[in-house]
Amino acid sequence: MTNTIVVVGAGVSGLTSALLLSKNKANTVTVVAKHMPGDYDIEYASPFAGANIVPMATKENARWESRSWPVFKRLTEEVPEAGIHFQKCHIQRRDDDLRNTANATFPDSTFDPNPWYKDLFDDFREHEPSELTPGYDSGCQYTAVCINTAIYLPWLLGQCLKSGVVVKRAILTDIRDAKQLSHTGNAANIIVNATGLGSLKLGGVLDTTMAPARGQVVLVRNESTPMLICSGTPDGRGEETYLMQRAAGGGTILGGTYDIGNWESQPDPNIATRIMQRVVAARPDIAGGKGVAGLSVVRHAVGLRPWRKAGLRLEEERLDDETWIVHNYGHSGWGYQGSYGCAEGVVELVDKVTNVAKSKL
């Protein structure tokens, strides 16, 4: 049985799903999206990501990230044109943040003193007191990767095209519209919904549990390693300290914020100042000892992470007698690092609903 598949959304989740689906030659895959790699729009989250590998899932939901890590590791080793490089990652914890979990910004296991992901990385270890960032009480480190999204997203699109995926722009008001948008001219029997935050207002989905988790960052030319991810800041809930140097001359991302429910698309200059001050205080070397004045700013940016109250939605739903929808959205801040694992899940659900259809023939 041939599957006519339309993937709605060309962010990292949609393109990775399309790529893995296209590996099965029984599938014809079309990607339809309003925004494409190369675009910068507040509706399109993927270009604004750091992006790196910092596990956020609980141990029970670790599959998506743990399955993605070997793929990114292989790409870093074997495919330099994908724009990924290895980088040490330092996780820093404050005891107060661990005690007051109700005030935590990230609802994840990143700062667990005994994290499940310690077995994922070969060189994971806890920090000695002398290695800690001032103001933090404990920490750990491991070798992860940082992704230059400006290179990786076009590369990922190119891999889709190489694998036979057809890509076109369109604006959908209802998920049902996708059924008639396959490049084959045939009605789609599988629709993959990878619209991220768009699932809030997309007809036929209208997931009211979706909300933006606003992320404001500063991109600078200065270089600094290792990556730094901190559990909290003196500036309170919603403001974070993180730093990651992108591959291939992509600059260094300074962050940031995680402000759920905030739709503001323009950078706040006061927040930007606090971000730079926090990073320079933690890493004076990044600015050559000159303070914030030593930072060479490329741009200030805001992205809206696709936050969902209940977390990831990766499940099938029947649209009509001939058509299934497979949902893959609600990744919040871990879209890249879970992209291959979740795409594997999409493939499994497509196989599942296809077998259901076969059994009825």
Automatic annotation (TrEMBL):
<dbReference type="InterPro" id="IPR006181">
    <property type="entry name" value="D-amino_acid_oxidase_CS"/>
</dbReference>
<protein>
    <submittedName>
        <fullName>D-amino acid oxidase</fullName>
    </submittedName>
</protein>
<comment type="similarity">
    <text>Belongs to the DAMOX/DASOX family.</text>
</comment>
<dbReference type="InterPro" id="IPR023209">
    <property type="entry name" value="DAO"/>
</dbReference>
<keyword id="KW-0285">Flavoprotein</keyword>
<feature type="domain" description="FAD dependent oxidoreductase">
    <location>
        <begin position="5"/>
        <end position="349"/>
    </location>
</feature>
<keyword id="KW-0560">Oxidoreductase</keyword>
<dbReference type="InterPro" id="IPR006076">
    <property type="entry name" value="FAD-dep_OxRdtase"/>
</dbReference>
<dbReference type="Pfam" id="PF01266">
    <property type="entry name" value="DAO"/>
</dbReference>
<keyword id="KW-0274">FAD</keyword>
